[in-house]
Specification:
Elements lengths: L1 H9 L1 H20 L9 H6 L1 H6 L1 H9 L15 H16 L1 H7 L2 H33 L1 H4 L9 H28 L4 H12 L1 H9 L4 H22 L2 E8 L2 E3 L2 E3 L2 E8 L6 H10 L1 H9 L2 H9 L5 H22 L2 H10 L2 E2 L7 H34 L9 H24 L8
Antiparallel strand pairs: 1-4, 1-5, 2-3
Helix pairs in contact: 2-10, 2-11, 6-7, 6-8, 6-14, 7-8, 8-10, 10-11, 11-20, 13-19, 13-20, 14-17, 15-16, 17-19, 18-19, 19-20
């Protein structure tokens, strides 16, 4: 494996892509430590414990890489963009004009992406306003004003700074996708979660709960092994191609297969579900009264309401995203067009029905696996007294993004006839 990594760095193009990805991620981490103008840095340091003790703030802080607790330029993280993507994908199914755009190929996708960007700016602006008043409400725990000289001009300055930071993150993520290695948005969430790993390991090492200290490594290894096992699992549908005459040449028929992954949606449903379930407790925190605090506590990430809701959304988004990314009718038409068929299944509509039936059987265990891996570690950790949030959702995202990025690097190496990571 070490020789393969060294081989990857010997290719100039891949080396430039890796260096560009690392540089953008380093800028992202720098922005998560750069405070926005108009905040009292000393007061911000005093409210760090408020984020670690509050479930939803801790979760949001995890996805922002600690930027929220520092009230940094990138405090919003990439969550507004993810929320906007969820809304646009749902509207694509409901609104006929958007559905028509989604079927127009690359041009239509560019238009939808542009709409997603506009919606991201609006969501980031609204969320920034809510966060400003949340920061102001933390003044009591800080002992001094978090936002100095609270006024309309100061609020506008902070809101614009946070919104601009979110837009900058979105642009950086798209740059990684275009010029680097891997999916930029996923890699930024990966970097945010991994940045909290040292503090998580320290919390585990200094924990007074003996059961947690013994159980944690085994649970983490079991979850990682389960993620890798299921992520790599696939059902191979045999495909037979008949001999065809193209011009004056006779093409030979052959056998191949159509790989259908058990978890075709990847970690996207987990990210979407975490983004949606973070919305109710965030609203409760922003209301900042007795009802709001009770509402936020009810949907706390360690509570049963959050776990059940997240599991349901993961299952729904797994089916939804699988249906969006894989169309059995289109696959059957393509096979028929190029002279391919599944042995024992007639081309055309019977092939589409066969693929749809196999996909439905694969998607169910894949969805249940995602929900179980996201929920079970959190449930186990809730039984201990340890203050540690690096549960199943975070592990799913980290391992899933790492596998997807490795596969993209593997594809780059295979194009240049180098032996890859995956045997």
């Amino acid at each position: 494996m070490l020789s393969t990594i060294l081989s990857a760095f010997t290719v100039a193009e891949i080396r430039k892509k890796l260096a560009f990805t690392a540089f953008v991620l380093a800028l992202y981490r720098f922005g998560a430590h750069l405070p926005v103008p108009g905040v009292n840095v000393e007061a911000v340091k005093a409210i760090q414990d408020s984020f670690s003790s509050d479930g939803i703030l801790n979760l949001l802080n995890t996805f922002s890489g600690g930027g929220l607790s520092r009230i940094a330029l990138f405090a919003l993280g990439i969550m507004p963009y993810i929320t906007a993507s969820i809304i646009l994908q749902l509207l694509t199914v409901v609104v006929p004009s958007l559905e028509k755009l989604s079927k127009e190929g690359e041009v239509g996708q560019q238009r939808i992406t542009q709409y997603t960007r506009y919606l991201t700016v609006g969501l980031a602006f609204a969320q920034s306003i809510g966060y400003v008043f949340l920061f102001r409400s933390l003044t009591a725990s800080a002992g001094e004003s978090v936002i100095t000289n609270f006024s309309a001009a100061r609020v506008f300055l902070i809101v614009i700074s946070l919104t601009a930071g979110c837009v900058l993150i979105m642009w950086m993520g798209e740059l990684i996708t275009q010029r680097g290695i891997g999916n930029g948005i996923s890699l930024m969430i990966f970097a945010s979660i991994v940045s909290g790993l040292p503090s998580g390991v320290q919390a585990w090492a200094t924990s007074s709960d003996a059961v947690f200290k013994v159980m944690m490594p085994f649970v983490a290894l079991a979850v990682i092994a389960a993620i890798v096992f299921v992520q790599e699992g696939q059902r191979r549908i045999p495909i037979q191609y008949a001999k065809r005459v193209i011009g004056r040449r006779m093409t030979q028929g052959g056998q191949t297969y159509l790989p259908l992954r058990v978890n075709m949606a990847g970690v996207i449903p987990v990210i979407f579900a975490a983004s949606i379930m973070a919305f109710p407790p965030t609203i409760g925190q922003l209301v900042n009264n007795e009802f709001g605090r009770s509402f936020a506590a009810f949907f706390a990430p360690s509570g049963w309401a959050y776990i059940v809701g997240e599991s349901i959304f993961i299952i729904l988004f797994t089916y939804f995203y699988t249906a969006v990314t894989f169309n059995p009718v289109d696959q059957a038409d393509n096979l028929k067009k190029y002279g391919g068929f599944i042995p024992g299944v007639r081309p055309g509509r019977p092939t589409a029905e066969f693929l749809d039936r196999v996909l439905a059987r694969l998607t169910f265990p894949g969805a249940m696996y995602l929900a179980a891996v996201a929920a079970l570690p959190t449930i186990l950790f809730n039984q201990t007294s340890a203050n540690f949030y690096f549960g199943g959702t975070s592990l799913l995202i980290v391992v899933g993004v790492a596998l997807d990025t490795m596969k993209q690097l593997e594809a780059q190496l295979m194009m240049r006839n180098y032996e890859g990571f995956l045997k």
